[in-house]
Write a structure and sequence with these properties.
Elements lengths: L1 H12 L15 H24 L2 H7 L4 H15 L6 H11 L4 H24 L1 H5 L17 H15 L2 H25 L7 E2 L5 E2 H18 L7 H17 L6 H22 L1
Antiparallel strand pairs: 1-2
Helix pairs in contact: 2-5, 3-4, 4-9, 5-9, 6-8, 8-9, 8-12, 9-10, 9-11, 9-12, 10-11, 11-12
Length: about 280
Amino acid sequence: MGLRTAFKAWTLRMPPPPPSLPENMTPSEDYLIKLLLSLSIVILTCTVIFKSSNSRALLEALGVSLRRVKRTLQEIDRKGFHLAGILVPIVHHSLLRLNYSNALCIEICAAITIVGWCCDLARLCIPAVARNWPGRSILREKERQQLTGGCYFSLGCTLSIAISPPSIAMASILFLVLGDMSAAIIGVSFGGETVSLKLGREGKKSLEGSFAMFCICFIIGNTIFAEVHLGEYPVFFGALAATITELYEPCRINDNLSIPVLSSLAMQYAFTRIRQC
């Protein structure tokens, strides 16, 4: 009797399942897994080609001005590390494909997030940890004295998976991984050259970078929901929410946290509108 009571108490503490989409609005798990693997192969191939080639000459051939090449290479190195974030949806959907529950996936993400936050807080508080921190060379100057984007990324992924259907969570995480990377690299490479308009809270963002992010997010979203009728409608609003969030960082919340959460909420709202119609 005691074991039964303890089990019931434990199940009550489990996170509630995220809202689900109707079957005709949900891409199949097989399709999503194949898409993620194909995307990973493309990214890995492009990375190998870029690293094995003359990077400076390649950037100049793509139209990057000489005065921007060095900074562009630095931004590519820093943002390239973020491509590892694609492992989150790959592992998530692989576990779902193996019939593990979404609640278990949320608990795994939460555990990783807690460990990550504890390690980063140790870096800030313990000099020996800070001196031996892996990847310290790619940290921005302001990140040396505050939590890194990785902490907010893990929290954003956890919340997105907890509040969204798996396909929407996958899209919102890819919006962050690939969309934000595109905005940063295109902004550093070409920002202000075509349009001199400065955007963002501090006027440091460019129209070129924001346009690149919206296009990448819109393409990714439409690829994910290619099997879904009217899927471009929620994808548009999700891509727009992600772009605006990256641009203005509402409430000064780190965009690694706010992009996946707000874009997933925008897509869920748009899917709700479709169901009502």
